[in-house]
């Protein structure tokens, strides 16, 4: 049933632009590009049956949001409902690998916020959640015509603050730290032809101490008859381990012993870290379906006041990354832009990044895995606490923890930030229960990573004491974080923002990290409304301020890591190390020395 060749594309290589790097099929059809498009401000499209149209009045370049210049629309005013339409035919289906008996699946990387999809006028499904992937089996909706039409209706209420939105402004014009909105399709759309019983997801769990890897496979349906399952692992082109079984269920877990991990003197040569981002190739077969994947072997935990990577204390040098581009907003301007972003983070001397108020494109996480960057996965916040906000947040959070579970680069989860959406958590027991439940729910899904309950302050049952402090005076910072006793005084009283740092939970052995600080504005592009937490007047002044703060941070005997604000300028928020065009404000070598302390 199976042939014996391993990954034909080389070690851990993913086809350029492929949207789902840890579950790769050899054939796929990219539906990004020019679509027809129309605003529906009067919300009459459903009544007028726009889903039966073969074209709409305007055009848009997918996957760029209509608010962005890259989309060709650039309409930043409030528009609650938009429609998309694209035709496809034999060429796209052939590229997707259509064959007798195959099922045709339509994938969306992310559509903000609520979407409904039709094929040839037939409704195929709906999805809610602006940052999470979804797909539909459209086989039965495809008629006999040579040309087919996909229509998508998207509803994204710009004033709905109960929906997870992160940094997307609820006002028409960006202000302070909020930016233009990202509505509609903003991650790739693609077609795949798959076997009747196909692999829908793979969750890799590594146990370095037990010398095993497990793969939990979720299938598209229950097999009519038991099907063969085989998983093969390779490292740098050399076979490493394999295991086989059969299943008659819609999910199966395969445990793969990895004998090389049993060598106590040699196992570290297989481990993943920022310094050595080693990845294993995986070839996974279920019946007639075959996919390529990859994984990394590493451990992460907290304790004894330290963050531990591969059973060694590890100091995080992180940068806050908004994942925002002026020409394309939350959508990356190209697949390669995500590689460039990851490489810049490394070049600047960081070993980690906190992707802020955004679930980042999986292709960025692929480059973090490949290049060696630790990532904190953070949820975009609602701005109001309500039953609806809780339900929406939890739904998207569950989907993302499942989506990103297998990336070795992700080493911490951050479900809440600075009490956004739980603004009265210090006094409202409901909000405390909610925050605590997010921690527990995350650990129920993924017990392998620490969870930061509410990054910045007012934390409940957190694994890391994560502090935000935008003090500009290095001497104050040096005294404030001199040692653990100094930090503990803040924990007993209040933190730099005048809020309690810890509301509940034992943090005596938890590591302390400064997870937002800096924010020095140096506006090289002459914004009228330039904003930052402090202001530099020249490049030299910017460099001096940066070096002073970093010297104070590196001098701390309490901190186990930091996250500098921020990587790039973002519209009026001009506190980046780089401009919004990704150009350094001072020489990269100077930034790197400041961040590494050497």
Helix content: 10-25%
What's the N-to-C terminus distance? 56 Å
Count of separate DSSP helical elements: 9
Main sheet, how many strands, which sense, barrel? 7 strands, parallel
Uncertain runs: 1-9
How many whole angstroms does the radius of gyration measure?
A: 24 Å
Lateral strand order in the biggest sheet: 26-25-24-23-33-30-28
Question: Can you characterise this structure?
Answer:
The protein has 598 residues and is of the alpha/beta class. The chain has 9 helices and 33 strands. A 7-stranded parallel sheet has the order 26-25-24-23-33-30-28. Helix 3 (362-371) links the parallel strand 24 (352-355) and strand 25 (374-378). It is globular and about 75 Å long. It starts with 28 loop residues before the first strand and ends with a helix.
Keywords, separated by commas or semicolons:
598 residues; alpha/beta; seven-stranded parallel sheet; six-stranded antiparallel sheet; 18% helix; 30% strand
Detail the topology: elements first, then pairings.
Layout: E1 29-30, E2 33-39, E3 58-62, E4 81-89, H1 90-95, E5 103-108, E6 111-112, E7 114-119, E8 122-128, E9 134-137, E10 147-155, E11 184-185, E12 189-194, E13 199-207, E14 212-219, E15 227-235, E16 238-247, E17 251-257, E18 280-286, E19 289-295, E20 300-303, E21 306-309, E22 312-313, E23 316-321, H2 335-347, E24 352-355, H3 362-371, E25 374-378, H4 387-404, E26 410-414, H5 429-445, E27 459-460, E28 465-468, H6 474-480, H7 484-492, E29 502-504, E30 512-518, E31 520-521, E32 534-535, H8 539-554, E33 559-565, H9 588-596
Parallel strand pairs: 23-24, 23-33, 24-25, 25-26, 27-29, 28-30, 30-33, 31-32
Antiparallel strand pairs: 1-12, 2-3, 2-4, 4-10, 5-9, 5-12, 6-11, 7-8, 7-10, 13-14, 14-17, 15-16, 15-18, 18-19, 20-21, 21-22
């Amino acid at each position: 049933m199976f042939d014996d060749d391993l990954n034909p594309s080389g070690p851990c290589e993913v086809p350029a632009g492929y949207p789902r790097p840890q579950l790769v099929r050899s054939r796929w059809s990219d539906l990004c590009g020019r679509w027809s498009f129309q605003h529906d401000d009067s919300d009459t499209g459903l009544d007028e049956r726009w889903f039966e149209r073969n074209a709409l009045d305007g055009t848009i370049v997918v996957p760029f949001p209509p608010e962005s210049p890259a989309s060709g629309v650039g309409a930043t005013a409030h528009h609650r409902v938009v429609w998309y339409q694209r035709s496809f035919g034999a060429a796209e289906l052939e590229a997707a690998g259509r064959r007798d008996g195959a099922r045709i699946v339509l994938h969306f990387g992310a559509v903000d916020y609520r979407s409904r999809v039709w094929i040839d006028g037939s409704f195929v499904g709906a999805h809610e959640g602006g940052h999470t992937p979804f797909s539909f089996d459209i086989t039965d909706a495809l008629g006999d015509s040579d040309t087919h039409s996909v229509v998508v209706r998207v509803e994204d209420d710009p004033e709905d603050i109960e929906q997870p939105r992160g940094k997307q402004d609820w006002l028409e014009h960006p202000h302070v730290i909020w930016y233009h909105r990202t509505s509609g399709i903003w991650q790739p759309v693609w077609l795949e032809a798959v076997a009747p019983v196909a692999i829908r997801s793979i969750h890799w769990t590594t146990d370095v101490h037990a010398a095993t890897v497990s793969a939990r496979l979720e299938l598209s349906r229950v097999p009519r008859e038991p099907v063969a399952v085989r998983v093969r692992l390779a490292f740098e082109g050399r076979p490493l381990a394999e295991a086989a079984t059969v299943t008659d269920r819609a999910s199966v877990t395969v445990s793969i012993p990895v004998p090389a991990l049993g060598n106590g003197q040699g196992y570290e040569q297989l481990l993943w870290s920022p310094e050595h981002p080693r990845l294993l190739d995986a070839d996974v077969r279920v019946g007639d379906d075959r996919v390529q994947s990859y994984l990394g072997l590493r451990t992460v935990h907290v304790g004894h006041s330290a963050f531990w990577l591969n059973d060694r204390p590890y100091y995080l040098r992180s940068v806050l990354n908004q994942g925002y581009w002026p020409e394309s907003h939350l959508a990356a301007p190209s697949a390669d832009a995500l590689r460039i972003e990851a490489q810049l983070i490394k070049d600047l001397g960081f070993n980690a990044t906190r992707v802020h108020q955004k679930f980042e494109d999986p292709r960025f996480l692929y480059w973090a895995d490949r290049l060696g960057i630790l990532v904190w996965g953070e949820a975009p916040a609602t701005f109001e606490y309500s039953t609806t906000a809780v339900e929406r947040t939890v739904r998207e959070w569950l989907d993302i923890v499942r989506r990103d579970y297998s990336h070795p680069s992700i080493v911490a989860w951050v479900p809440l930030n600075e009490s956004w959406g739980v603004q009265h958590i210090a006094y409202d027991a409901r909000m405390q229960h909610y925050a605590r439940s997010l921690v527990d729910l995350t650990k129920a899904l993924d017990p392998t990573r620490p969870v930061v309950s509410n990054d910045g302050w007012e934390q409940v049952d957190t694994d890391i004491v994560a502090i935000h402090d935008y003090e500009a005076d290095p001497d104050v910072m040096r005294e404030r974080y001199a040692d653990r006793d100094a930090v503990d005084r803040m924990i007993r009283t209040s933190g730099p923002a005048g809020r309690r740092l810890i509301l509940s939970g034992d943090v005596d052995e938890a590591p302390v990290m400064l997870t937002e600080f800096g924010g020095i504005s140096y506006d090289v592009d002459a914004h009228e409304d330039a904003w930052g937490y402090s202001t530099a007047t020249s490049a030299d002044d910017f460099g001096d301020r940066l070096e002073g703060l970093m010297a104070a941070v590196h001098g701390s005997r309490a901190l186990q890591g930091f996250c500098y604000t921020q990587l790039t300028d973002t519209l009026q928020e001009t506190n980046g190390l780089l401009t919004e065009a990704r150009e350094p404000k001072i020489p990269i070598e100077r930034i790197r020395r400041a961040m590494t302390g050497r």
